[in-house]
Specification:
Blueprint lengths: L5 E4 H9 L1 H8 L4 E4 H17 L6 H9 L9 E6 L7 H16 L7 E11 L5 E12 L2 E8 L7 H10 L6 E7 L5 E6 L6 H20 L20 H6 L1
Parallel strand pairs: 1-5, 2-3, 6-7
Antiparallel strand pairs: 4-5, 5-6, 7-8
Helix pairs in contact: 1-2, 3-4, 3-5, 6-7
């Protein structure tokens, strides 16, 4: 591996834990198709961030670069957009996002900051060094907030919350604001109590984050055929993986 200090995010760690080979292909810069669900999530976050800052936004304009394959900030995307059988049409989703954003804006206050970019340098006793990085959607009344779009249910990701709490400097109040993709948007606030405990943050760093970084730096990227999305239809790296 390069001597350049490694930067790593929660999403990369999560991807490695699911299937190390996926992270290898990501690090190699292999471009892949993007699903409509991922695009909708990206557009929703961008529009919501602007709305919370009281800045003008147009969801159609934010969506257009993805529809034409020209989104400049998607460096690992090959420009191909795929729609699944359960994906809503763009026009329907655009209107739904407007209602979902209004649901968040109807809350009695505004966040102190949005899209908070954080980085923390970490060094282990044996000399492993790296930067943990992440973007927290909002800091709201002293609480770290991450917005999610979900279908019928959402399982709280305590490890994601732990990564952000570590970036925030220690035990933190953390909530997921989950907007469920129902005919009428429904907002549910879920508090993650685990990240109020320093011992849980220590476990996440020592037993998950550091081992993953060490494996990546050592070039350990085994495929995980038991991964639930290990198929041609679900994994964008499936063909590359099969061809070796």
């Amino acid at each position: 591996m390069s001597d350049v200090l490694m930067n790593i995010s929660y999403s990369q760690i999560s991807q490695y834990l699911s299937c190390p080979s996926r992270e290898m292909y990501y690090l190699r810069g292999i471009k892949t198709p993007k699903t409509a669900a991922l695009v909708y999530g990206s557009v929703f976050h961008k529009a919501l961030a602007l709305a919370l800052k009281s800045k003008p936004y147009n969801i159609g304009d934010l969506m257009q670069p993805y529809l034409t394959g020209n989104a400049p900030d998607e460096k690992d995307w090959n420009g191909i957009l795929t729609f699944g059988d359960n994906d809503w049409p763009v026009e329907v989703m655009t209107s739904w996002m407007e209602d979902a954003i209004k649901l968040v804006l109807d809350m009695p206050s505004r966040p102190q900051s949005t899209e908070l970019m954080l980085s923390r340098g970490i060094k282990t006793p044996d000399g492993l060094t790296f930067n943990l990085r992440g973007v927290i959607d909002a800091l709201w009344n002293g609480v770290l907030i991450d917005f999610k779009l979900a279908g019928r249910f959402y399982k709280v990701d305590t490890f994601q919350a732990a990564c952000y709490a570590i970036l925030n400097g220690g035990p933190s109040r953390f909530k997921f604001y989950v907007v469920f993709k129902e005919k009428t948007p429904r907002l549910e606030v879920q508090l993650v109590k685990e990240v109020l405990d320093q011992s849980y943050l220590d476990w996440a760093l020592d037993r998950v984050i550091i081992p993953v970084v060490r494996s990546i730096q050592n070039g350990i990227f085994p495929a995980n055929p038991l991964y639930q999305f290990c198929s041609k239809n679900w994994c964008p790296y499936w063909t590359s993986c099969r061809e070796g």
